[in-house]
Amino acid sequence: MNIIIFLMALSPILWLMVALSLLKLPALKACPIALVIAIVLAMSYWKMPLLECITGGLEGVALALWPISIVIIAAIFTYNLCIATGSMDCIKEILAGVSRDKRILLLIIGWCFGGFMEGMAGFGTAIAIPASMLCGMGFPPVAVTVACLVANASPTAFGSVGIPTVTVAQIAGLKSGEVAFATALQLTPFILIAPFVMVCIIGSSVKALKGVWPLALVAGVSFAVPELIAAAFLGAELPVIIGSISSLIITIGVSKKWFKDTDPKYRIESNGPEREHKITAKEATKAWMPFILIFIFLLLTSKMVPSINHMLSAVKTSVSIYTGEGAKPYTFVWLATPGFLIGAAAVIGGKIQGADAKLMGKVFVSTLKQMWKTILTIVTIMTMSKIMGYSGMIAAIAGTMLSLTGSFYPLTAPLVGALGAFVTGSGTSSSVLFGSLQAQTAVNLGINPVWLVSSSTVGATIGKILSPQSIAIGAAAAGLLGSESKVLNKTVKYSAVFIIIAGCIAYFGSWFY
């Protein structure tokens, strides 16, 4: 494969790397230019007809808006509504009331609750919310930000109710359930390692594990095992949600029973007035109600309850969008989609919390204003990805990478996914950029494409540690604006080690999977 052709095919992605990393352009400006580059090359060198270019791009727009964007809007709306009703403050107090040991609090808030927020909302909330909560309790800002970034390196694959994994499966033409299980399998070592790493970060030494390492092990195992089971039997939407809830309940229970007396060196003092009364079960239930309903709705409409799943899945519309070779109708599933279910749970939960229609409308409008740039960026990236895929640009990249690395390509598959997440700041966007490439390369190598596509998604979750966007979100939440380089310098070593481990898992696992 001619290296010039390879660079031409890769140029939209190279532009994003340069624009976001070196030129510091916001994604909203960089992505449209990348789309233009892709369109020009697709129509000129790859001879893609104008109509196919337009319809292929429109299919990308459709996929970006439904189901991806609707999930993001619904999830962020749920979180914003909890803030507006004051429920988030109650949730924060519940979590903070478990222990005064900062290592334990980090595991509960940064790991368990952060994983839950990633599963529910994603897109930075799993970093911003735990980081702001922990800093509000007196934690060191840089250490908290780094720890929360490391914590986010495993749940991202199933963030926003599984959107990155569902999306990459759609892009690669694979079954999302199979990709979900393979992804969870490859992520298991990182889920077990991360709690230990987080404790070392917050304690500035491996010595910080003394006295709490069994709890770190419990936090990891109670997350990993349920996630793996959920991925195997329920698909991509619920693994992180179920894993994080399990880890949260078990970690809190174990810490209260066996870790009451902890090292005074790691104890934090209360920095606010004590409540006049303890939070009652009724108040706690009301505060958690939107999230409880989301969990119930998603569980009842999953394949675990076939009757409801089939009934809701029947409400759909199939539309022919792309007109080129290999075109398939695009299907809009209206009710059995996480975005609709999350939105319904938010409205019902908000009503229980006392929010009226006026407040909900105000929060919804503010959520749209908050998210429109993200939505537009995702639409642009999805459009570019579809055009690159249908025109043959992705195939050109895959062919060249295969010829350069040969049978050792799986070693670099997670690095490719990490590159996408670093560039775009999104596991979903990375899946979109490289999903087809990984699948086609796997076929060329005679490897199960499910395994290689999953390894790319695993790499994307690790890439979030170094993503400038993720670091900016964490720094802003921790009050570190202008000190992002300090965070970056501390996260490099963790992401490098994780990528090497992921590459080995992808390579050796491809022999057996």
Specify the biggest β-sheet: 2 strands, antiparallel
Mean pLDDT: 88
Count the E strands: 2
- Low-confidence residue ranges: none
Class per helix and strand makeup: mainly alpha
Radius of gyration: 22 Å
Contiguous helical run count? 21
Q: Please provide the ordered H/E string of secondary-structure elements.
A: HHHHHHHHHHHHHEEHHHHHHHH
Helix content: over 70%
* Large-scale geometry: globular
Report the span from N to C terminus. 29 Å
Could you give the order of strands across the largest sheet? Answer: 1-2
Describe the structure in your own words:
This protein starts with a helix and ends with a helix. Helix 6 (about 125-135) runs parallel beside helix 20 and helix 10 (about 215-235) runs antiparallel to helix 11. The protein has a two-stranded antiparallel sheet with strand order 1-2. The model has no long low-confidence stretch (mean pLDDT about 90). The chain is mainly alpha-helical and about 525 residues long. It has helices at about 5-20, 25-45, 50-85, 85-95, 100-120, 125-135, 140-150, 160-170, 175-205, 215-235, 240-260, 280-300, 305-315, 340-350, 355-390, 395-405, 410-425, 425-445, 450-465, 470-475, 485-510, and strands at about 315-320, 330-335.
